[in-house]
Specification:
4-stranded parallel beta sheet; alpha/beta; Rossmann fold; 36% helix; 2 domains
Length: 337
């Protein structure tokens, strides 16, 4: 007899209540798309329910096999280490079969969603500026994983070539370089009449607001350039289509991540120290905290700090330090003196 299936959507979590709400709305979309399965969701940090709570809910509904997918664009540390660690631990402790699917990744459906968001920005812009006079800046989350960062550059190229923009640049909201403000300063000097800034993010949050704020700051210094802020992806139908496909791929067995350039498996230039790093989650200290900065009671026995903090990722864990943390266009060097 086949096991009862359930779906688990695994998110990162955010301090921003709107971001948490948007992720919850996504889970509701999936419930409507997949009425044959119970669907739950949870977060690694900074929001509730946590992933364990969602798994508890599925188990309580009689689910014997969980189809879990990362609610993330690319496979960096969260998708490769943190979420699998949480899932593996729960599976071992609860005698539950959990199969883990792929991230959203580079996908034609995701590119269609991104294209629609950029088209929305173009429709709100002046009509007297041609595409070849327009520069696109795609902003990714930024990670300590060069493979994930390179995917943002690929998204940029696909959109650039697809629309026929005059030029395009890639920037990141944190961790790596270039950050948004220096990237926009550079872009503003290239002689284009319009700059479209597109956050390649699933949901809103502090980082998206920082991207928009940086855009406003640079725009104020270049009054002759039209700066347009494109909307992020959110619950675009093609995004939901991609999540649905990732869940179906677990059942068909097409779930392997592309590990050819994974820094944990092979020696990637500059990141050699990460090869063979222990697979573990380092989010236990903020697991179960809600968007208001308050911990909610969760039914497990892991240790929590009783305070909130900015989570700069400088706590002790086994990952090698990011080798370019002091890059002149990166996070540490951009801190206010």
């Amino acid at each position: 007899m086949s096991k009862k299936l359930g779906v688990m959507l695994c998110g990162h979590g955010s301090r921003d209540e709107n971001a948490v709400t948007e992720f919850a709305v996504l889970s509701e979309h999936l419930k409507k798309r997949l009425p044959q399965y119970p669907v739950e969701y949870g977060y690694l940090e900074f929001a509730t329910p946590i992933i364990r709570n969602g798994l508890d809910a599925l188990k309580a509904k009689g689910v014997e096999r969980v189809l879990a997918v990362p609610g993330m664009l690319f496979a960096a540390g969260h998708a490769k280490n943190d979420i699998p660690s949480v899932l593996n631990t729960y599976a071992a402790q609860n005698d539950l079969k959990i199969d883990y699917g792929k991230e959203l990744g580079i996908d034609p459906k995701m590119m269609r969603a991104a294209g629609d968001r950029i088209q929305e920005a173009l429709e709100s812009a002046r009509k007297d500026v041609a595409l070849h006079e327009t520069l696109l800046v795609v902003v990714g989350r930024g990670a300590s994983d060069p493979d994930a960062n390179s995917n943002v550059s690929k998204v940029t190229r696909i959109l650039w070539e697809g629309f026929g923009f005059g030029w395009a640049e890639t920037a990141y909201s944190g961790v790596t370089f270039p950050l948004v403000e220096p990237a926009l300063e550079h872009a503003a000097k290239l002689g284009y009449k319009r700059i479209i800034v597109f956050p390649y993010f699933l949901f809103t949050g502090i980082l998206v607001q920082r991207i928009y704020n940086a855009t406003d700051e640079v725009a104020a210094r270049y009054a002759t350039i039209e700066f347009i802020k494109a909307p992020y992806l959110n619950d675009h139908p093609a995004v939901i289509d991609t999540f649905e496909e990732r869940i179906e791929q677990i059942l068909t067995g097409d779930i392997a991540m592309n590990c050819q350039m994974c820094k944990y498996r092979t020696q990637v230039l500059g990141f050699e120290a990460d090869v063979g790093a222990v697979q573990e989650s380092h989010h236990h200290h903020v697991e179960g905290i809600n968007a208001k900065g308050l911990f909610e009671i969760v039914n497990h026995a892991s240790h929590h700090h009783d305070h909130d903090h900015d989570h700069p990722h400088d706590h002790s864990h086994n990952h090698a330090p990011y080798p370019h943390a002091k890059h002149p266009l990166g996070p540490l060097s951009m801190k206010k003196k």
